[in-house]
Amino acid sequence: MSTLLDIKSSVLRQVQVCPSFRRKTEQEPETTSTDSQEPPTGAWKPGDGVEFFAHMRLILKKGDGRQGLPCPEVLLRSGSPAPAEPVDPNRGLRALTQEEMEMLYEEALYTVLHRAGTMGPDQVDDEEVLLGYLQQVFGTSLEEHTQAIERVKKAKAPMYALKVSVMRAKNLLAKDPNGFSDPYCMLGILPATGAPQEPSGQKEQRFSFRKGSKRSGPLPAKYIQVTEVKSSTLNPVWKEHFLFEIEDVNTDQLHLDIWDHDDDVSLAEACRKLNEVIGLKGMSRYFKQIVKSARANGTAGPTEDHTDDFLGCLNIPIREVPVAGTDRWFKLEPRSSASRVQGDCHLVLKLITTQRDTAMSQRGRSGFLSYLLLLSRVLRFEHRVEEPNSSSWRGELSVAGTTILCLHGAQSNLSSLQLAVLHWQVSSRHHQTRTLDYGYLLGLLEDIQAHWEEAASLPQEQEESLADSFSAFSEFGLRLLRQLRDYFPATNSTAVYRLELLLKCLDKLQLFQPSFEICPFETELNMDIAAALKRGNREWYDQLLNTKSPREQPGPQRLTGLIELADIIYEDLQSCYGVYASLFHGILKVDFFTLTFRQLERLVAEEAWMLTEELSSKMNLEVASGLFELYLTLADTQRFWSCIPGRDSRSLALAGIHTPFLPAVKLWLQVLRDQAKWRLQGAVDVDTLEPVDAASKHSSSAATASLCLSHIQELWVRLAWPDLAQAQGLGTQLSQDMCEAALFYTELLRKKVDTQPGAAGEAVSEQLCVVLNNVELVRRASGQALRGLAWPEGAAGLEGVLPRPLLSCIQALDEDLKREAHTVTAHLTSKMVADIRKYIQHISLSPDSIQNDEAVAPLLKYLDEKLALLNASLVKENLSRVLEALWELLLQAILQALSANRDVSADFYGRFHFTLEALVSFFHAEGQGLPLESLRDGSYKRLEEELRLHKCSTRECIEQFYLDKLKQRSLEQNRFGRLSVRCHYEAAEQRLAVEVLHAADLLPLDANGLSDPFVIMELGPPHLFPLVRSQRTQVKARTLHPVYDELFHFSVPAEACRRRGACVLFTVMDHDWLSTNDFAGEAALGLGGISGIARPHVGGSVRAGQPITLHLRRPRAQVRSALRMLEGRNNKEAQEFVKKLKELEKCMEADP
């Protein structure tokens, strides 16, 4: 019993097959000829089918990556460097002449030698380092370099100017009663002679435009500019711009005052007049006018500080202005230590040159052009030195190069927009001669975009130059997109990222298109991109076709190349959808996938139509195999389109392409059927009928068979034939072929195991266990495979509902394989029959002195040992089959033992009853074995009844005989007819009244199709009614619906009617004049429940009671078992009861 307790719900650990097969329902008569079982030859080259199925696995593997829509994560497999893009030295800026080069060199040296302002921490402040860097960039000798420097030093120094932008102020003091101020700024340049003196008094004094002294003389301001007055605010916003000439960048300084305005005089007008006057005297006169315009604080003296109007000041030395300019907040300062100020002022300062003594300036070359040439020279030098063979360079210049460009840009007064434009123009041109990182180029375009709205429009010449650079770059980008697959392969994540950045660059170009007065593009750029993609698709396809399947080759040779071409196109479409489509649509709103799919699908469809037409007259097995493989790829292409929401494959050029492939598909499926049998034959031949490994319980041939079935089903799914009528025909034939192959395999197994020598005395054959597991594995694999062949039945076919031909095929094969499994199971358990009988005989011959458990122990030990072997060798389903077979063997063995021992002691039957219950517990194994319902069914019921009856007395057996009759239920209620009666007990007369009313639907037992029925009534059991004789009705001639209406009385005590088993038995007979009467049926009515016995009888006639309808039946086995039990007993009462029954039967047959 321990073995079964260890059995868990272990599921078949077989190959998990995916449905797909086919079988021919075998209706032909059985044959013994071995020739009819051999697979036919000639469908493919003869062999064991290994090569054929290996090729089929390659086809299936090809389809594994074609399920559903592709994901970018699956396609992007390589992070290696992107392929090199084409470069052309001629696409860069034109080469400079020697004279132009010398002029540019002079311009760069002039910029370094006359730099002004403060160098930043990330800039080079060493003049020798900067000059040495320029010598390397221009490649001059030391002598040439020294001479050039001397010439530049002799030139005039440039004229400097300071650009000042007064942007805003914040957190100023409130000077007005309303809690605000009306601030404005006065600013100007203090020359070196007006520099503040060292403090000599008790209070520190600072210069102020509105502070004067009678002894001081004219104002020391070169220029005075004033902003607008911003009323009632402490956080004014001005955004006003000024330009001041600088005489000495080392000593001059910028001075700015902020005042609170309190009268109606226009200070701005006064300042403008002041700046129109030449000479310090005129400036002093007009400045006095400005001073008068402000509130003078009563009669305060001229030297008194006007602290109530003053809001703060700034003094910024020109030499401290950064070279690149500055854009920052400055904290306001008091004009003396007694002043109280607060707040900050936001200024933008930039030091530029207005006159330069260089050849380029003298010839009218703008700073814009000179910067462009200098940047181009620096970029070529830096890229050549730093990254000669890489496309990942992002324009990172050396510190010296950045410093020189910063100096030149600032001195040339180039705006942020102009600098961004220049860097784009030079870098985009340089990219076409030596590849750069697209992220760097995209950043340059974003810089232009960031400054585009803020700056004034470019001069027309510069805008035209920018438009030309856009056109050149877009032309270069379109050329790359035409060869998209070469330069940006979808499997290379690095290349795809570069493509994404390129598309973003092209998208940026479109954003500038409406801003140009001179449009750089003749048409919309995205239209040009779509045209370039179409042209590139066609060029790629033509090149592929000429390489793989040139049209000058014969059709059969072209077929192989066209298969490869179709596969390449499918993979390309996957790349288009999974990688390229989202980039083009998300960035440029170009539907690249639809454009490409439509174009390539149409081209490959045209080739397929032409080739199938050419090969239709040359059909053979090789051509059929190639066409089958080609069709699978074309069908995958159609399904790919259909998988995308909103797409309909009926509009494709491939729609209807299946029609010319039908003959090839039919021929290939025939080859498949034959090769499957060859493959199974070869697998069984080499099978040693041993488990594949420790975890499996089947042999190698079963795994091969399951795999073959799985491959066939997968192939059918991939085929997905679109024509429903044709699909039904193909699927039906394929299912029949698969069933035939499965049965062919089981027959091969049976033959092989029959030829294997068995071990002498071996009760459990390991080979038979393996064969049984093989059959079960193939049964499950074939069932799954056949269900995978489902095809829709007509337009109204329901999804998930198997077609009727396929369902019939599945059911027939399942029954056949289950029969085969039961056959092997019977063969396996037959080796244990002799042992089981021996142990059952041991139980029957055990003396009464031995305890029941001791008598049963040898049998249970034997079963435990054998089931331990079976449990280790069989899968769960087969173990259940073997348990059921063993259970039936045990029941039959016990029944035989009982029939061989008659008239023995009650202990004998009690021992077997104990044995039966012990076996039930053993085989149930606390729910881990067979279910109790199946254990206690069938032969068990018969055996249990026999044991129970053997333990009963004779009278109990007789009572059981009648109880069994009462328990009988007609299996078919109308088969033997019905009998209507009324019955009650008359207590006053102590008699039982039985009225036979009529019968209906009796069996026709005569040749004329009718009967001559009569009814016999008897009370039983006889020992309850010993003096009562049977009675009968009249015979009703030639009818199946007799009407009797006869009343009978039986004088019996009421107490006898209440006893166990008391009943009246109605037997309907057919009267025959020339032969014995025929039995038509019987029915029993228990007396315990009739009126007068179960409840007192209420007054009224007998005929007033409700009639009872009894369904006639024939005696069942359990009734006859009690009779057989009585026949086997030798006591007088049993023999008399049997004799009386036989006499009654004779009376039934006699003439009434």
Automatic annotation (TrEMBL):
PANTHER family: BAI1-ASSOCIATED PROTEIN 3, UNC-13-4A, ISOFORM B. Belongs to the unc-13 family. This is BAI1-associated protein 3. Residues 853-961 form the MHD2 domain. It is found in: Cytoplasm; Late endosome; Membrane; Recycling endosome. GO terms for molecular function: calcium ion binding; phospholipid binding; syntaxin binding. Residues 30-39 have a biased composition (Polar residues). GO terms for cellular component: cytosol; GABA-ergic synapse; late endosome membrane; plasma membrane; presynapse; recycling endosome membrane; secretory vesicle; trans-Golgi network membrane. It holds the Pfam family MUN. It comes from the Eukaryota. Residues 19-46, 195-215 are annotated as: Disordered. Residues 628-749 form the MHD1 domain. Gene3D superfamilies: 1.10.357.50, C2 domain (2.60.40.150). One of its GO terms (biological process) is dense core granule maturation. Keywords: Cytoplasm, Endosome, Exocytosis. Residues 141-300, 975-1101 form the C2 domain. It is a peripheral membrane protein.
